[in-house]
Amino acid sequence: MNISGKVKICGIIGDPVEHSMSPAMHNAAFEKMGLDFVYVPFRVKREDVGKAIDGVRALNIRGLNVTIPHKVAVMPFLNELDPLAEKIGAVNTIVNDNGFLKGYNTDAAGFLQALLDKGVEPKGKNVLLLGAGGASRAISFVLAERGANLVLLNRTLQKAKESADRLTEAFGREVRALELSHWNLVAELRHADILVNATSVGMSPQQDETPVPPSLLTASLTVCDIVYNPIKTRLLKEAEAAGAKTVDGVDMLVWQGAMAFEKWTGVKAPVEVMRGVVTGRLGGSPA
Ligand code: NAP
Fold first, then answer.
1. Secondary element (H or E) of residue 26
2. Is the CB of 253 under 6 A from ligand 1?
3. Mutate which of 113, 155, 199, 281 for ligand 1 pocket (most atoms within 8 A of beta carbon)
4. Tell me, what's the pLDDT at 286?
5. How far apart are CA 249 and CA 265, in angstroms?
6. What confidence tens digit (pLDDT) does each residue in 117-144 have?
7. What's CA 109's distance to the chain center, in Å?
8. Cβ of residue 192 lying under 6 Å from some atom of ligand 1
9. Does residue 232 carry a catalytic annotation?
10. How many CB atoms lie within 10 A of CB 281?
11. In sequence order, which residues have a C-beta less than 8 Å from that of residue 40 and are 6 or more positions away?
């Protein structure tokens, strides 16, 4: 790597960050596009988020990604929020223009782009979304905004209810919330066009687990799993075996990264290079 005196610095803050694919993905993209940029991981403790953001201004760091557990905590330290990030209530990308810091949420737009890229249009479709954590919050918002008919299922019903109530109020159409149980899956999958797993079930090292029994998967479904390690989760393997169309978590990861890259550099992201780096590191082929 050839780092000049004019290099622009980007990075990711989170805790932990050691597992992140973003440094490899972005550095490969900068190199491919001949940009004098470098991307580094910063492990930042919860209590140091404000100091880290001061440091972004002081060191003139061009941009950051933000990951668990700081996506909500960074918000008060920024100068401006993109309306989508403000409505979702979480930021995963920051752009620094001469000390003026603006926060975005490219997880939401990245998820939607991953679907559209595979020819899946959620508008007017019945979408069953599993999970009510941070990722589900961004995904549910963008799906509701796009005009999907959304049902949320979560292990902790209260969290799904809170999300559903927020969405119902924001979009003026009912979003239902149910407990993630076998019988609710049976009932809701009968009408579903798209199933999205936004829980962490199936993520390594628990890759033998699945949130949905294989007997409930059919060829008429599109099944999307945002878990990206492994790339082909048990859910995606069983969906493929049932003849369903599948969208893997690498697609969302790459698109959220590509959108951040474009905000920092003003250059179109080399999406295939970024995808190649991630799939190479995860050791598999995309779904
Ligand atoms: P989070 O805020 O911790 O939420 C975790 C969700 O999973 C909650 O809904 C939780 O239910 C549910 N869950 C966990 N263990 C479960 C179990 N044994 N049975 C049923 N439900 C269970 O995490 P997150 O940030 O939303 O991330 C969720 C997953 O998405 C992670 O695997 C993460 O790596 C992945 N992700 C991928 C991308 C991408 O770009 N592809 C982006 C963001 C996240 P409760 O509410 O009941 O606890």
1. helix 22-32
2. yes
3. 199
4. 46
5. 24
6. 999 999 999 999 999 988 999 999 999 9
7. 8
8. no
9. no
10. 12
11. 9, 10, 11, 12, 23
Q: Where are the domains of the chain?
A: 8-105+251-281, 108-247
Torsions phi, psi for 175 (to 5 deg): -110, 125
Q: With a threshold of 0.85, does the pTM exceed it?
A: yes
Q: Which of 117, 103, 6, 62 is nearest to 264 (CA)?
A: 62
Are the C-beta atoms of residues 37 and 270 closer than 8 Å to each other? no
pLDDT(265) > 60: yes
Residue nearest to ligand 1 atom 22, measured at CA: 199
- Which pLDDT belongs to residue 283? 83
CATH code that applies to domain 108-247: 3.40.50.720
Ligand 1 centroid distance, CA of 97 (Å): 33
88 in Cβ contact with 111 (< 8 Å): no
In terms of CATH architecture, what is 8-105+251-281? 3-Layer(aba) Sandwich (3.40)
Active-site hit among 6, 8, 32, 71 = 71
35: left (phi over 0), alpha (psi -120 to 50) or beta: beta
* pLDDT given for residue 238 in this prediction: 98
- Indicate if 108-247 has the same CATH topology as 8-105+251-281: yes
**179 Cβ contact partners less than 8 Å away, ≥ 6 residues apart:** 153, 154, 155, 157, 160
CA of 55 to the centre of ligand 1 (A): 30
CA of 7 to the centre of ligand 1 (A): 36
Give the residue, out of 200, 212, 253, with the most ligand 1 atoms within 8 A of its beta carbon, to mutate for a pocket test: 200
Q: What is the pLDDT of residues 221-258, one digit of tens each?
A: 999 999 999 999 999 999 999 999 999 999 999 999 99
